[in-house]
């Protein structure tokens, strides 16, 4: 076991858990009570800066320490029988390629169609996976922060939970498939402030992003899908249902 990697892992996990359980949860409780657009924008701006500095900085630091391990962890996980079979099916058969294209189209429809069908619904009544209602932009001025938070999460959280953490866990002795599964569970726990429904939804999404990375071998695919999922909630939903473009605060 590499003790340096273990120490780095403990520091990173402690930081993220502390951030999720205390600071972020407490700030989010205060944020939910805010009504003034200017106040909400200040908090959202702060969160965006923190996302870039904390999540971006942490992912960069961990990747710097584990860069040589990342390909090895990926390769071993791709040799795991369920992933190897999926890779052979999706890349080696016409049926698999067709299903992959169909899944991409179906996923896009699933993201957008409910918003179109519910466009005359009160935004508060739209079903949501987790306690995220307060995060949704309510005015035109909040939309850029929703977009920024979505893109930041898509990039930095994927670098952290699909590359850095699995490599760290693999480096201290976990089997590669287990390392990726543990990283996906940690990704879910990061969303504690969204209550347990949000944790469960984030964990399921984390497993999907992990599958996309392992099958494709490219981190760009889960980054794009993650960003699109968040943009759907923090930009499209407010635009199509909340009609925030006409609201200035």
Give the topology.
Elements: H1 3-32, H2 37-66, H3 70-78, H4 81-92, H5 94-117, H6 143-171, H7 176-189, H8 195-216, H9 220-240
Helix pairs in contact: 1-2, 1-6, 2-6, 3-6, 3-7, 4-5, 4-8, 5-9, 6-7, 6-9, 7-8, 8-9
In round numbers, the mean pLDDT is 90
Q: Given the structure, what is the number of helices?
A: 9
Question: What oligomeric state do these chains adopt?
Answer: single chain
Order of helices and strands: HHHHHHHHH
Cα radius of gyration in angstroms: 19 Å
Unreliable sequence segments:
none
Helix amount: over 70%
Number of strands: 0
**What percentage of the residues does DSSP assign to strands (E)?**
under 5%
Major β-sheet annotation: none
Structural class by secondary-structure content? mainly alpha
Question: Gap between N and C termini, in Å?
Answer: 55 Å
Choose one word for the global shape.
Answer: globular
């Amino acid at each position: 076991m590499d003790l340096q990697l273990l120490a780095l892992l403990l520091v990173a996990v402690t930081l993220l858990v502390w951030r999720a359980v205390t600071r972020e949860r407490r700030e989010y409780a205060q944020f939910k009570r805010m009504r003034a657009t200017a106040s909400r924008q200040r908090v959202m701006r702060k969160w965006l800066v923190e996302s870039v500095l904390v999540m971006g900085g942490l992912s960069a630091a961990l990747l710097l320490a584990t860069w040589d391990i990342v390909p090895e962890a990926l390769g071993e996980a791709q040799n795991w029988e369920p992933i190897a079979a999926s890779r052979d099916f999706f890349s080696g058969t016409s049926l698999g390629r067709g299903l992959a294209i169909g899944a991409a189209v179906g996923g896009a429809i699933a993201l957008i169609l409910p918003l179109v069908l519910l466009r005359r619904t009160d935004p508060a009544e739209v079903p949501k996976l987790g306690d995220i209602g307060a995060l949704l932009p309510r005015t035109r001025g909040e939309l850029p922060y929703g977009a920024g938070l979505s893109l930041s999460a898509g990039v930095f959280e994927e670098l952290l939970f699909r590359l850095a953490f699995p490599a760290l866990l693999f480096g201290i002795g976990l089997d590669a498939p287990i390392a990726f599964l543990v990283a996906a569970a940690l990704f879910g726990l990061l969303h504690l402030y969204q209550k347990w429904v949000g944790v469960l939804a984030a964990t399921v999404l984390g497993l999907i992003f992990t599958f996309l990375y392992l099958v494709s071998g490219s981190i760009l695919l889960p980054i794009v899908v993650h960003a699109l999922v968040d943009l759907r909630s923090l930009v499209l939903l407010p635009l199509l249902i909340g009609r925030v473009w006409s609201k200035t605060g």
